[in-house]
Design a protein that fits this description.
The protein is built from six helices and four strands. The chain is mostly helical. The chain has a single domain (about 5-50, about 55-100), classed as Winged helix-like DNA-binding domain superfamily/Winged helix DNA-binding domain (Arc Repressor Mutant, subunit A, Orthogonal Bundle). The strands form two sheets. Strands 1-2 form a two-stranded parallel sheet. A two-stranded antiparallel sheet has the order 3-4. A hairpin with a 2-residue loop joins strand 3 (about 90) and strand 4. Helix 2 crosses helix 3. The longest helix has 14 residues, at about 5-15. The radius of gyration is 13 Å and the shape is globular. The chain binds a DNA duplex through helix 2, helix 3 and strand 2.
Length: about 110
DNA sequence: TGCGTGACCACGG
DNA sequence: CCCGTGGCCACGC
């Protein structure tokens, strides 16, 4: 697949994340078959603002940390959006991460 | 062309 | 949990 498709695929998967759930950059990368290129998923999310309906706030790092919050309109926006969906965030980290975690590998593999 | 940087991650200690 | 190391690769200078 070329880069264009890679980016589009990242956004497509992101759009499939259910409300109130979160996933990680690495999980998306693994689902797309580029497990070792999680950084590229992060780069794709950086550009996500240019595309409609891409819930970048539901994508955090593998620890549940809101590492990308500084790339939103305001640093607090990411947390606010998550809490608005019922996900509690404390000290820049998603609580009960394992419970809210949505793994495309398992959820979409059906 | 090369180098530093980064919304990452696995692994070892 | 923290820390360092190596791999990944687009982008800007």
């Amino acid at each position: 697949m070329d880069q264009q498709n890679f980016f589009q695929n990242v956004y497509d998967v992101a759009r499939l994340i259910p409300k109130g759930r979160v996933t990680s950059y690495g999980a998306i990368a693994a689902y797309l078959g580029v497990k070792s290129s999680a950084r590229m998923v992060g780069w794709a999310m950086n550009q996500a603002g240019a595309y409609p309906d891409v819930p970048a706030h539901r994508v955090v790092n593998h620890q549940g940390l809101l590492t990308g919050k500084h790339h939103f309109a305001t640093p607090s926006l990411m947390q606010e959006l998550l809490e608005a969906e019922g996900i509690s965030v404390r000290n820049n980290k998603v609580q009960q991460f394992q419970v809210h975690f949505w793994d495309p590998m398992k959820e979409l593999e059906l």
